Amino acid sequence: MNYTRYQLSKKEYAENIVVFLVLDGMISYLFYRSWIVFLLCLPCLNPFLKMRRENLCQKRREKLEEQFLMAMQTVITSLTAGYSVETAFTDALKELPLVYRADDMIVLEFRSIVSQLNMNQNLEELLQSLAVRSGIEDIRNFAEVFAVSKRSGGNLIAIIRNTIQSIMQKNETRKEIQVVLSAKKMEQNMMSLIPCLILLYVQTVSPGFLDVMYHNPAGIAIMTAALGVYLGAVVWGKKIVEIEV
């Protein structure tokens, strides 16, 4: 599986179309009160679905990395017990179903690795293949370190353990940052809704108060500028609370 691409399921596709139509309808009504604007915004569906695929793809990669680190802990345990690295991967495959479902990503990947090892495939190449398909920097770094250490005949157990511990420390730091930022992200999401809620409130309480802003060139220009500033602020706010480690 290529983890750098994400294919929406029929359910996900339908759900995201509904979300887009709701957003399109909300913007068209609150800022323009125009069906024409609603129809003109429909071509934005493809960029919206692309953004959703990228978000879901990133979440899947994060989940795969977490599962990979857990699996490598099992491999390290077998190596410490004196088994060869190939046998350690085979033993890890036996342990993984106790933690994950049979169709989880890491179980499928380890099953494929063990199957190809039984056909005398090179483990270094198999890990490199996983690294390329996953698009995860930490897995790529591990595969490179593993290949070099195995060829050079170094202390494989210590090298693998140190590499995995380094990756896990990085992930722990990332999680701690996400915990700290979670409240800020919630605040940012709430603040993003406030302008739309204010418009909805005014139009509900005083239906004719904003009529001057609709269906005339000056009003359309002002509302378009307001919408542009609003969308820019939303994008800017999301970038502020996104920190990569």
UniProtKB/TrEMBL annotation:
InterPro entries per the UniProt record, alphabetical: T2SS_GspF_dom
TM segment ranges: 30-49, 190-210, 216-236
Listed Pfam families: T2SSF (PF00482)
Keyword Ribosomal protein: no
Name assigned to this protein: Type II secretion system F family protein
Compartment(s) where it occurs, according to its Swiss-Prot or TrEMBL record: Cell membrane
Keywords annotated in UniProt: Cell membrane, Membrane, Transmembrane, Transmembrane helix
Domain (Type II secretion system protein GspF) ranges: 73-202
Presence of keyword Transmembrane: yes
PANTHER family for the chain: INTEGRAL MEMBRANE PROTEIN-RELATED (PTHR35007), PILUS ASSEMBLE PROTEIN (PTHR35007:SF2)
Topological relation to the membrane, as annotated: Multi-pass membrane protein
